[in-house]
Amino acid sequence: MSSGHVGNAAMPVVGNLRDFDTRSGNLVERFIFNNRAAVLLACVVATLVLGFFAFRLEVNASFERMIPSSSPYIRNYLANKAELPGLGNTIRIVVENKTGDIYDPQFLDTLRKLNDTLYLIPGADRSWMKSLWMPIVRWRQVTEEGISGGPVMPADYNGSPASIDKLRTNISKAGIVGSLVANDLRSTMIVTPLLELNPQTGKPLNYGEFSQALEQKIRSFESDKVGVHIVGFGKIVGDLIAGLYKVMLFFGVSVVVAAVFVYLFTRCVRSTVLLVTVAVAGVVWLLGLMRLLGYQLDPYSILVPFLIFAIGLSHGAQKMNGILQDVGRGTHKYVAARYTFRRLFMAGLTALLTNIVGFAVLIIIDIPVIRDLAITTSIGVSVLVFTKLVLIPVTLSYIGVSPKAARRALQEDVKCSRATGCWPRCGRASTA
What we know:
The protein has 13 helices and five strands. It has helices at residues 27-33, 36-54, 72-79, 105-119, 161-174, 207-218, 233-242, 244-266, 269-292, 304-328, 333-360, 368-399, 403-418, and strands spanning 90-97, 138-143, 146-151, 187-193, 226-232. Helix 8 packs parallel to helix 10 (304-328) and helix 10 (304-328) packs across helix 13.
């Protein structure tokens, strides 16, 4: 026991490793620290393997998984969706004539080219597309001879004033002003249902690629005279997927900011790097497990890595504080790691289990994507049991902490404990 520092009877200050009884502690502690090289190697291998799968994780979404499937209205829709393809997952493209109305021959020619381009994009349900140029949009009229009708776009349309007048009459007969045609007659809409499966690959429609195709092929028709506005589930999700790189940038910035604050807390470079690295490793484990279990990142679950990183870093800081103070008292780094594990393992495990149960409660929400969010978040918190409660103490038993930072942490804790109305720092050792 070093002079000037005392410990309690259960965890005395042990400056020399030969004075420490490696048979002390519970069964879990003995198993982990008496086999710490194997434990550390297993964690490294797991990180590499899961990291490989994490890079193969797909980012996509499903329209049907984002709606309450047990609702009687939704059940009725799903049971009859083959007959209702235009009422579910659709995109709507509004094409606007900025300099006139829709009866401008040049505008109608641009609308035709845009319609044909959209028709050929994989994922569009071509048989149910609705626009002025699609034969499915028809006019009907009751006459003395019966019901007559035909496509809104005249079969002999050639851009002449006569064919324009005929189109104008057909639009009036069809009653589509206010739906496919704007009330002011300055814009018209193309309604396109989307297929769940890509007909070319047979795989679920990739909304990222579909949105990119819209931007490259459809948005190219936009000009000073023609405006193009795209809305719908597929476009929203596609934009979110396209913003993944920005999300990754935000995650990187959050890691840097967190590292700065951890360093200001510990004033130890090696421990700061370790905490942040292990927190990122926890996220890698989660993403790899998601890939192995068949999950995808979607607009909801893309927030989970931020959450897991934050929880992991907070728990790691607690472990780090305990080790810093033990080392500051003169305890050997290996012994300090075991002491911290001994003090905080059950408390940390209880806290993580509470988090798991709390997130698992989201399963009761009747939206499949929310249930997936609950499951993946619970998996991520479960990963922290290994990365935070085990990996950090085991690694620190090898690399230790800065002696200067350890002394500073102990001095601050003593000052804080003696100050009136000041709480001791989280995770501090229970010593006199």
